[in-house]
Amino acid sequence: MSSSGFTTLPVSYGGSIVHYLYVTEHRDSKGRSQYPSNRTLFVVNVPPDATDRELRLFFNPHGNIEKVAFNSDHPQDDNQPDESSESESDEEGAGDAEDATMLNGEDGDAQPNQAGSNGKRRSKPRGKKEKPPIVTPLPSAPLRRLRPTGKSAYVVYLDDSAVKRALSSINPETPRVWPSSSEPRGLAHYTALHDSRRPSLDAVRLHADSSIELFDYEVAKRKQKSQYHKGEAIVDEDGFTLVTRGGAYGKTLGGGVGVASKKFQSSGATDSKKKKKPKEKEMFYAFQHNEKRRAGLIKLKKDWEADQAKVTKLREQRRFKPY
């Protein structure tokens, strides 16, 4: 059974599960494809979890396979590689070779070394460089790559007649068994993915400790390459010691020469802030509530007595006194 030039190839995953592939001979009408038309099989509706090894095992009985390429991995497969960059790189390489021969001499002979008559330089003994610590990677499980559904692939054979044998051996009524692989498929794939993203605490601890060791090593290496070190004076280009002001007592960056600050010179006081005494929390204990209530009642009573005295005084002033 064929439709639009494609031959239907049923694939069985075991049981009643059947997947349909559509295969045909690869045709390059414009001449821009990098795959040869006479020995390339074009496969459409490739399973999303198919691997390179499974496609090789599935189509290998018809001939030796040179290459398997997924269209989703290489969307620009139909175009030929740009040969201009290769030619430019070849020309640059030739130019570099000519420059090297010009430096060595017109005849290409190497000039003698000034270190000695035998032409060998004396190498200075170097100390062993400390190797950076290696980060322990987290454990990972071999998982297959999931691609979008309905994608295509190219199966390139070594023999020209392999494509015809592969197409002639297809029986649309009898499904072929899809080869098995070590990578989990279906629900087992997502279970393995879940387990791989949740490693054990020991593995995470080893990974974190090794990462911290590498970070400390890089920090120490940057400090060694720094221009100024602690305890050394800062020297400018002319060889004079540079005096800088900083800190409460004029501590410089290098630590060689220091100048006191203006505040310390005038008063002798430093900029250090005095620590404030911790205050007792208000309305935290029960006796604080009782004392506050008692003080409020006493104040209210005093205010009432003062108001009563004012009222009495005002009444006495308003009395009529004819004599």
UniProtKB/TrEMBL annotation:
Query: Which example biological process does GO assign this protein?
Result: ribosomal small subunit assembly
Record carries keyword RNA-binding: yes
The record's annotation in PROSITE patterns points to: RRM
Q: Which GO terms describe its cellular component?
A: CURI complex; UTP-C complex
- Which segments constitute the RRM domain? 39-105
Q: Which Gene3D superfamilies match?
A: 3.30.70.330, 6.10.250.1770
**Start and end residues of each stretch annotated as Disordered:** 67-145, 260-280
Q: Which domain of life is it from?
A: Eukaryota
Biased composition regions of type Basic residues, renumbered to the chain: 119-129
| Sequence ranges of Acidic residues compositional bias | 79-99
- Keywords per UniProt: RNA-binding
PANTHER family named among the record's database cross-references: RIBOSOMAL RNA PROCESSING PROTEIN 7-RELATED, RIBOSOMAL RNA-PROCESSING PROTEIN 7 HOMOLOG A-RELATED
Q: Which family does it belong to?
A: Belongs to the RRP7 family.
Q: What is this protein identified as?
A: RRM domain-containing protein
User: Lineage in the entry?
Assistant: Eukaryota, Fungi, Dikarya, Basidiomycota, Agaricomycotina
